[in-house]
Design brief:
The complex is a heterodimer of chains A (about 325) and B (about 90). By secondary structure, chain A is α+β, with helices and mostly antiparallel strands. Chain A has two domains: about 1-105, Phosphorylase Kinase, domain 1; about 115-305, Alpha-Beta Complex (Aminoglycoside 3'-phosphotransferase, Chain: A, domain 2). Chain A is built from ten helices and nine strands. In chain A, the strands form three sheets. In chain A, strands 1-2-3-5-4 form a five-stranded antiparallel β-sheet, with helices on one face. Chain A has a two-stranded antiparallel ribbon with strand order 6-9. In chain A, a hairpin with a 5-residue loop joins strand 7 and strand 8 (about 210). The longest helix of chain A is centred in the C-terminal third of the chain and has 26 residues, at about 260-285. Chain B has a domain at about 10-45. Chain B has helices spanning about 35-45, 85-90; strands at about 10-15, 20-25, 30. The chains are: A alpha+beta (about 325), B alpha+beta (about 90). Chains A and B meet through helix 2, helix 4, helix 7, helix 8 and helix 9 of A and strand 1, strand 2, helix 1 and helix 2 of B.
């Protein structure tokens, strides 16, 4: 509990909301090990208390799309895909930021990538993409916006770094194709918008579910596969793991990769390569350190993008 | 409803018609009579057929999956990064 109380208003307020959701005004007998901060980032702060977590969403989160996204997580049609919120209206705000409350679920063990549920993740994404969007207005998924925001952050943080020009040149190949609306297409499937291995938790009886609907909405489902695709293209994710992920997605009837996987994936995978490289430059500079080896690999990948364009239908099967 | 074990509040989740009470403190589950069976039936709908078993070690490797033109040069893959801390962080962050 010490960390919660000493780490500022947002975390302290979240801790109180979480505690109240569990105990009301009654005494807390929870093991201190299950009362702790799970995330403290600009785009989301999360505090666990026993069996639940309270999340403060990003500053500037718009109310209407936020409400639609939280409702999506609770939609019975997606009960086998997304973790539902704790039922009941949430009206609390912390420092102007909306707060939501969710059941706690154990995440993927970051220390054991071999045990990561790649097939299950792919199957959940395929199920999400195959679910007909519910009626009523839905926001666009935010994956392309997040790539653009990452480039903006890099330009502000490290305008003169030698690698900035490299990342920017790769980004131009993306913006040329994204078109005026910045979404790069007219596909309108339900998408997660920010898939990575931190977006999976086990539900109450051990089944994997996707969490974090902050970037979810309608769009081209290829963007949900773009981060693993970028890791594979960079040579970081072993080909065997990528093949398992893509195979499980196709076996579950996912629509993102038809008819030619790289014809669909090339643009979003370039965008996620740029996003990862841009954030690596901004973060490493903010932390006063050089790029680590894998961050360097992402910059090197950016360097190849402007000169080695993939011709649709001819992705190399090496 | 209060958890009979730790007395924290229980929240009701509806999973396709099955009501599940989960304790917000200890994460325990309370099910009415027959709900465990209903839940098991429900879950089987979400399960895909099991993935084909991985080829046994020693067999010829599967053909490499397609890669984009700008991908890492053939033979230059850094598969060894998979277990490194840096890539571990990358796998789990936005």
């Amino acid at each position: 509990m010490e960390r919660v109380e000493s780490d500022g208003d947002v975390l302290g307020a979240l801790a109180l909301i979480a505690r109240g959701a569990v105990h009301g005004g009654a005494a807390c007998g929870c093991d201190p090990g299950v009362v702790r901060v799970l995330a403290d980032r600009e785009d989301g702060a999360v505090v666990r208390h026993g069996g639940i977590v309270a999340k403060a969403h990003a500053p500037g989160t718009e109310d209407a799309p936020h409400a639609v996204r939280v409702a999506l997580a609770g939609d019975p049609a997606l009960a086998g895909v997304l973790l539902p919120p704790v039922p009941g209206p949430r009206t609390e705000r912390v420092a102007g930021r909306p707060v939501t409350v969710w059941p706690y679920g154990p995440p993927v063990d970051p220390g054991d990538p071999d045990a990561a549920p790649w097939e299950e993740a792919a199957r959940l994404l395929a199920l999400l993409h195959r679910t007909p969007p519910p009626p009523g207005p839905l926001p666009a998924m935010r994956a392309p916006v997040k790539a653009a925001l990452a480039v903006g952050r890099m330009l502000r943080a490290v305008p003169d770094h030698p690698a900035t020009a490299t990342v920017l040149a790769a980004w131009r190949t993306v913006t040329e194709e994204l078109g005026e609306d910045g979404t790069g297409g007219t596909r309108a499937y339900l998408c997660h918008g920010d898939f990575h291995l931190g977006q999976l938790v086990r539900d109450f009886h051990g089944a994997w579910r996707l969490i974090d609907v902050d970037d979810a909405g309608l769009g081209d489902p290829a963007w949900d596969l773009a981060r693993p695709a970028a890791w594979f293209a960079a040579g970081l994710l072993p080909a065997e793991v990528w093949a398992r992920f893509l195979g499980a997605y196709d076996a579950a009837g996912g629509p993102a990769t038809e008819p030619d996987p790289w014809a669909r994936l090339d643009l979003p995978a370039r965008a996620l390569t740029v996003q990862t490289a841009a954030l690596a430059l901004a973060k490493s500079t903010a932390e006063g350190r050089g790029l680590d080896e894998v961050e360097g690999v992402m910059i090197d990948t950016c360097a190849r993008i402007p000169t080695a364009r993939t011709v649709p239908g001819s992705a190399a099967s090496s | 409803m209060q958890c009979p074990k730790c007395h924290a509040a229980m929240h009701t989740y509806n999973r396709n018609g099955v009501q599940i009470e989960q304790c917000s403190g200890c994460r325990g589950i309370f099910l009415d009579y027959g709900e465990l069976e209903a839940l098991t039936r429900l879950e089987s709908q979400w399960q895909a057929p099991p993935a084909p078993p991985a080829p046994p070690a020693g067999y010829p490797a599967q053909p490499a999956p397609a890669a984009p033109a700008w991908g890492a040069p053939h033979g230059g893959h850094h598969g060894g990064h998979y277990r490194q801390r840096g890539f571990g962080r990358m796998l789990f962050s936005s």
